[in-house]
User: Which sequence fits this backbone?
């Protein structure tokens, strides 16, 4: 698969192994725009160029959906007040809209947890579609959220105050950061960049309870952050949504 075609379809108790951590998000076909010139092998397509759908090789079996940790009182759970489980992700959280990170809320963090890690990914996109890991195309990784936190507001990405001191990793759009999405929003490359698929894809927001903070700086590649969490996972919770562009 050539580079241009590849980007067109971009869109407890005891610690669990990292293979259990299926993380992060969406696939996107981007149009080029203002900002820095992306690397030649991942140039966004020109406006109006047709986008062919391609099959994904992402494997979802690397991270079991459970066991889900509990603090003994309330199950570890994650949800978004912006869309129902499995429902359409609103336009403003996608590449066709404002590219805002969606609001998320959680409860029941395991008592032994030392930090939380949020990963959002397109489970329908594998390495052949630009994913940096076998887990899927990474749209958002937030490192070392405080265990006392209970959620993130809409548009939290890139806001130090909203992120409560947590760091954001580089996502799988990093090579085209500074270009623009079809809706006109700038591609961040670090933090959150939303769904932008050529057909309907499913996006997973997964919150992982870790035994201690990872201490990684902002801009760390998503694959490195995921590897660093290996062997430190106490529990997980997730929320899914889907998106199909009208383009």
Assistant:
């Amino acid at each position: 698969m050539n580079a241009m075609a590849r980007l067109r379809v971009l869109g407890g108790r005891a610690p669990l192994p990292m293979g259990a951590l299926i993380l992060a998000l969406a696939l996107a076909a981007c149009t080029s725009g203002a900002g820095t010139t992306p690397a030649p092998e991942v140039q966004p397509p020109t406006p109006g160029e047709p986008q062919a759908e391609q099959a994904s090789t992402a494997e979802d079996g690397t991270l079991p959906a459970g066991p889900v940790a509990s603090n003994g009182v309330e199950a570890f759970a994650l949800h978004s007040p912006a869309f129902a489980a499995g429902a359409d992700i609103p336009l403003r959280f996608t590449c066709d809209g404002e590219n805002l990170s969606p609001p998320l809320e959680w409860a029941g963090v395991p008592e032994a947890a030392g930090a939380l890690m949020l990963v959002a990914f397109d489970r329908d996109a594998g390495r052949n579609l630009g994913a940096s890991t076998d887990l899927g195309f990474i749209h958002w990784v937030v490192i070392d959220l405080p265990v006392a936190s209970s959620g993130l507001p809409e548009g939290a990405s890139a806001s130090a105050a909203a992120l409560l001191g947590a760091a954001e990793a580089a996502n799988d759009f990093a090579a085209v950061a500074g270009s623009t999405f079809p809706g006109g929003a700038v591609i961040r490359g670090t933090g959150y960049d939303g769904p932008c698929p050529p057909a309907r894809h499913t996006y997973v927001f997964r919150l992982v309870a870790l035994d201690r903070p990872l201490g990684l700086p902002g801009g760390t590649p998503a694959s490195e952050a995921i590897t660093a969490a290996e062997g430190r996972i106490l529990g997980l919770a997730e929320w899914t949504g889907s998106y199909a562009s009208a383009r």
